[in-house]
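re: ur msg from earlier - yeah i can do the adenosine monophosphate complex, just paste it... oh wait u already did. ok heres what im feeding in:
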Amino acid sequence: MKLKLYNTLTRTKEQFTPLDDKNIRMYVCGPTVYDHAHIGNARPVIVFDMLFRLLRHIYGESHVTYARNITDVDDKINKRAFERWTKKQPLVQEIRSLTDSTLKQFHADIDALGVLRPTHEPRATDYIARGDTTLDMVKLIMRLVEKGNAYEAEGHVLFSVASMPEYGGLSRRPKDDMIAGARVEVAPYKRDPMDFVLWKPSNLETEPGWDSPWGYGRPGWHIECSAMSGALFGDVFDIHGGGLDLIFPHHENEIAQSCCYWDVPKMANIWMHNGFLQVEGEKMSKSTGNFVTINEVLKDWSGDVIRLNMLKTHYRQPIDWTVKGLEECDSMLRNWHQAIENHDAKEGEINTAIISSLSDDLNMAQVFAELHALAKTGNKNQLITSLKFLGLYKPEIYSEKETLMPEQNQKIEILIADRIAARASKNFAESDRLRDQLIALGIEIQDGKDATGAPTTTWKVKG
Ligand code: AMP
Ligand code: ZN
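and the outut:
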């Protein structure tokens, strides 16, 4: 099977050749967990989940290792943890408790979107100073200082961009542009405005910190991914992914750190970047109120509708996230599920045309054309299996319902119908009461809308 992927490094679609076809390694920059993740954060998670599924299909499940990191220390996290800190535990533990709970929310959100768990989900704070032989941020920075790629200044350690002539190869920007684009801080302790922070001092009273050869402090953001990918994958790996916004400076700086540390010309062979998502034609922004969390979208739409809406646009294009788009996906899924039910289909094989479309740099438009064809005139067993493979079909929702006694089923349907009526008449107290009653019966409900915009509710037995 030939797999072609667009490589930001070369700006071309390339034939993918694994470094080791028994161990394909993919690293994707994950979320900063300080609050509910927004719907834009779900895009790389879903896109690279799709690629993970494809790689597992082509090379075998046990031959693909996928790491998606968690950034669990950063200024927003530190500030929030300090505000709620009661001094019962050290600040380092306070940020851990805060990020533990946001990570739990993140998992619940993306589980609902049909996302498989990656093989590794390393947390930045576990790779600062490990006290064992595994690569960590302190070891990495020490070596960069020894090699003359980094220098210490006023409690900070900075990467010296001038020490790496190849710097800028991924983003291909002229130096002046990079200075402007990075909005670099011109600090007196920097030798060059382009130099970026590897380590910075923490205030003992107000900020979390770790002991290091340069004093009590914390790492810069870019060094996290060099340490975690190096610890898990070694010097060079196959695929590195993330959103378009990360090309510069984050990925450029990861490359500088890792290539200098390992003495290699490349950190990863293929660099992949998803396009940006905006909401109803506007950039998402907390200050203008045009900000949508995954959790909020899940209150109105089922996970497979959201997943489909994310995959409908090619991953490198921008997405305009709209209610209209969600409605279209809802009816598309209904058609496919209807075709399956009408034919009482059973699982079969994944459609090979779907695999070849995916193998062409995740050509989802072609995948959907194949799905429509299967639903219309094609093999319905292949339709089920292909939808399941794409993370768009959850047969357990149907089979669980079948395990309920008929009278239980009827009771639940009545409660749901009553709740739809209560919502339609805007009697939200009654609709909440009915929701609680359903939850007490162990039923999970999912609200959505049909093609005409009328409210619908689907349900399943809580797993
Ligand atoms: P962050 O939590 O901001 O570090 O972002 C986590 C991941 O989500 C990164 O890969 C970002 O590139 C990606 N991301 C953030 N905002 C958006 C957006 N609006 N559209 C697409 N991807 C995004
Ligand atoms: Zn990263």
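cool cool. Confidence is low (pLDDT under 50) at residues 396-400. ping me if u need the other ligands too
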